Write the structure tokens for this entry.
Amino acid sequence: MERKAKDVIIKEENKLPLTFEYMEFFGSKRSDNLDSGSSPYLKCKKYQTEFHNRQVLYKAMTRML
Amino acid sequence: MILIISKNNEITTTEVIKWLIVMNKKFIRVHEDEVFEINTLKKRILLKSYRNQFFIDEISAVWYRRGGIVFKTLNYQNQAIDRYMFEVQHWLIDYVIKSLEGKRHINKQSNSHLNKLLVLEKAKQIGLDVPPYFLAEDMEDVIIDQTIVKPITGTPIVDHIQENQNGIMYTSVIEQKKESSFFISFFQEKIEKDFEIRSFYLNGKVYSTAIISQNDEKTKIDHRRYNSKIPNRNVRYKLPAEIEHKIDLLMQSLDLNSGSVDFIKSADKFYFLEINAIGQFLGMSEACNYDLEREIAAYL
């Protein structure tokens, strides 16, 4: 069991499903702050979203063939 | 006008919208934080949020992708009036939601979150092979290295379980017995797989991808433990007609016209695992050139 999973489980009074003992942890280092210069997102009126991906996506080989 | 019920940060929605724009189809995208008021104007029902407003009669099609349409409800001081008005507002909201779901649609807000346990039972009834499973609070019936445990929730992710950390529960093989009991958990027989199959179902048509995950120790049990350095090979696959027909029956019995259906192929058997009505499909669409985003836009 990952140590973080143990830390989480121990604090709970009630039992948890066994799946919690196999839980893995991940975190995002990317900023969701849209005003941050390092945010990968742009506000986009055309697509009606504030999370339009700033990165230029490559075209997969299969799409080019 | 197409109504898209989605989330603000949802790339799949954006990819479908790109095709709607190419096809000159007008749309409204609703985010998860919008709360709608129901008003009337010249005998028409008007829905209004902080960023959108539309008449329900101007909506021609609805795509339920994520999130949900949420409505503002008013409370009253007098308890009897409050109870009465709760019912009035309930029926208005019910009318609006059912009116929208009665239009041409891809999935519905009211039934896109599935009970995995009931879906497994239905799959068995329809005649799909399902790995034997059981619920238990202890490991008495668990066979080491031959039993897996997995969540019964729609998503395996627990957001913000700790500061700056999310948790994820992959399918895991039980390698060691545990003496103490736990909350009811879902166990299933581990199937030795040739490969996994993810099928995307849309209005009777099935688009399948074989995910060659078993050769990589990291992805062997759960292909979602992605190996970004050596990704699993994903190739187009055609399920036998009989299996596609059973998928069609299963989806119709659940009143779904879209969703991802997961299988394991083992020798000559196709074991049904689960359905995700609102799962991701961009990856397989791109890998296999299925253009599912265009198919969805064309249908709406």
Summary: The helical segments of chain A are 3-10, 61-64. DSSP finds two helices and three strands in chain A.
